[in-house]
Design a protein that fits this description.
alpha/beta, Rossmann fold, 2 domains, five-stranded parallel β-sheet, 9 strands, 19% strand
Length: 285
């Protein structure tokens, strides 16, 4: 059966990149198709099902008049036996503004106006289609390779997927608490490998340091209870409409204890159906 996907969301959140990724895994991709043509085009591709495995349609704010119809069109097509999935790409306002400044491109709604006002207007226009989305990806803190991993997970591996992305961020308190952290955990109560000469110049990514940190009973208890708490929190965050979580894990310098605990948490969270990445902010300092 042909798999149909509508790729939409905030301008600057990565729609073009996602379409290229889908094209690389065999999807026929069409960008900015008028919404009114979706029904007719779908019937054409259904007749060509043997030649096409997947079709991805890129729809953005340039299709302004048709955006309000997307939800109704998709529901009507589902009733007729044609199933569409909607992938909505999201990003924070400040990230979008920065991307537009770096690329020196104009926002579709900005013209001669301010980008921040255009982004707010676009967000309001896309609110309804976002409600119909099957998948929501917040690309604010994603690298291209991390975005590709999420796209492959949804459309190539076809595994279970929830609209939630977790970033586990280790850091050193001496360099400041990450501004974007939603939750911050202080692991400076754990034994410090810094004072062990043979471990001092290693990091939590090295087996010797990891085993030293995790060999302490408080680390085992803390890791278990931290995983239980995060597992409890995420479904409740989802209910409240949150689609990403940044978990900060800090020690003094951000090289030993925080890295070890962050890696342990990531290992445990792999059991859950959420997107995830690990960053060690201060490991090289």
């Amino acid at each position: 059966m042909v798999r149909f996907v509508i790729v939409t969301g905030m301008s600057g959140a990565g729609r073009s990149s996602v379409l290229r990724m889908l094209e690389d895994i065999g999807y026929l991709c069409i960008d900015n198709l008028p919404v009114q043509m979706i029904s007719g085009m779908t019937k054409v591709f259904m007749r060509e099902a043997k030649q096409v495995d997947g079709v991805a349609l890129g729809i953005d704010i340039r299709n302004l008049e048709g955006l309000s119809q997307v939800g109704d069109i998709v529901e009507a097509m589902k009733e007729s036996g044609y199933h569409y999935e909607i992938l909505f790409l999201e990003a924070d306002n400040n990230v979008l503004i920065k991307r537009y400044k770096e690329t020196r491109r104009n926002h579709p709604l900005a013209l001669q106006g301010r980008v921040d006002k255009a982004i707010e207007a676009e967000r309001a226009e896309l609110a309804d289609i976002k409600k119909h989305a099957d998948y929501i990806l917040d690309t604010s803190h994603m690298l291209i390779r991390e975005l590709k991993q999420e796209i492959d997970k949804i459309f190539l591996e076809r595994g279970e997927y929830e609209n939630f992305f977790v970033t586990i961020l280790s850091f050193g308190f001496k360099y400041g608490i990450p501004e974007d952290a939603d939750l911050v955990f202080d692991v400076r109560f754990l034994p410090n490998p810094y004072y062990i000469p043979e471990l001092k110049h290693l990091t939590g990514n090295d087996r010797e340091v990891y085993e030293f940190v995790m060999g302490a009973e408080p680390a085992q208890i803390f890791s278990k209870q931290l995983f239980q708490m995060i597992s409890f929190l995420i479904p409740n965050y989802v209910i409240e409409g949150k689609n990403q979580l940044v978990i900060g894990v800090g020690c003094t310098g951000g090289k030993h204890r925080s890295v070890s605990i962050a890696n342990m948490l990531a290992k445990n969270l792999e059991k859950l159906p959420y997107g995830m990445k690990v960053e060690h902010r201060d490991i090289e300092k």
